[in-house]
Amino acid sequence: MREARNSNKSQITRPEAEYDDCAKLELKSRGCEMVMDIGHTIEFSKHLSQQAQQADTPSNVPNLSDLELHPHELEAIQVLVKLINNGTTYWSSPDMDLALSMIKPLAVLFLHPPADKFQDFLALEGLSYLSGSEDETAEILRWSQILDQLDEIIESEPSEQAVELMLLYDPAFRKRFAPPEDSTQTDTTYMTRLENLITLIEEEDGDVHCAAANALWRLTDSSPEVRKVILSDPSLTETLLKSFRQWAGEERDAAGFYSSTSGSMIGVFKNITRSLTAPPSVELEYRDSVRSG
After folding, report:
1. Would I find Acyltransferase among this entry's keywords (predicted)?
2. What is the per-residue pLDDT for 217?
3. What are phi and psi of 60, to 5 degrees?
4. Is residue 39 part of a domain?
5. Which residues are registered as beta bridge partners of 60?
């Protein structure tokens, strides 16, 4: 799987360069005005089923994965995304609503089947770039299918962009890893998501394990429910201990600092021990099990 991921990275290099050239050409012309012209040529509503069109309200959002755009329309969105990632949306236009208007095309690009690695990469980069304010994040979260798609990508083809995008959607992302405090739900979906995230900390890809460790640190720091789920499930606890052992033996660099991943895992350990209600002797045994790994 890791060899396949490295291959996928090399496969996106050429088309990414091609769309970079398109973005530069746009910048030399009318910049953002031309981007909006491109966006307005795509009539999303005509591609939606009648049922989805009727559901197009803030409380009941249409399923964008039902869209079937023409390849040229997808290419137009990809050029638009390259301009977003180059900062054009903020440097070339005084219109503060411009970023919000870009989110739906990005959601379409991310959810449109069949998505390929380049398409996912562009969409994740663009959505991350546009998640800079509460209004923009709220608009992205309006398309709940985005979080479902993120779950699938993090499980099958994890990337730094996917994990970091998930982090931007706090507190929404926390709710996907643990039930509410007063809930009696025993849905294993929560445990599966946590296990997938913890497993990413063992990845060889430095960007992936660093982002995953940071995500776990933030989850355990902000959510007592997540700490409770981890401590209540022996399989999750063992998976976490395995990650602790992997990073506990890392040595500091020349300046005396641990890597970002090690630092995050130290933070995770401190957060977890905050929720331990066992006697001191049991807590010491838990700590010794990490150190002895």
Report:
1. no
2. 92
3. -145, 90
4. yes
5. 57
Residue 7 identity (one-letter amino acid): S
Assigned domain for 205 exists:
no
Which pLDDT belongs to residue 35?
59
Task: Write out the two tokens for 24.
Answer: 């530069």
For 151-162, b/e burial (b = at least 16 CB within 10 A) is bebbbeebbbbb
Q: What is the pLDDT of residue 286?
A: 47
The per-residue pLDDT for 156 is 78
Quote the pLDDT of residue 12.
Answer: 39
Residue type, 77: I
Phi, psi of 57 (to 5 degrees): -135, 160
User: Which residue ranges of the chain lie beneath pLDDT 50?
Assistant: 1-17, 49-51, 57-60, 90-94, 256, 278-284, 286
Domain that holds residue 150: 11-169
> Which residue from 33, 25, 47 is spatially nearest to 89, judged by alpha carbons?
33
Domains contained in the chain, number: 1
Sign (positive or negative) of CA dihedral 58, 222, 106, 112:
negative
User: Would the pTM count as exceeding 0.70?
Assistant: no
Residue 31 lies in a domain: yes
Q: Is residue 273 part of a domain?
A: no
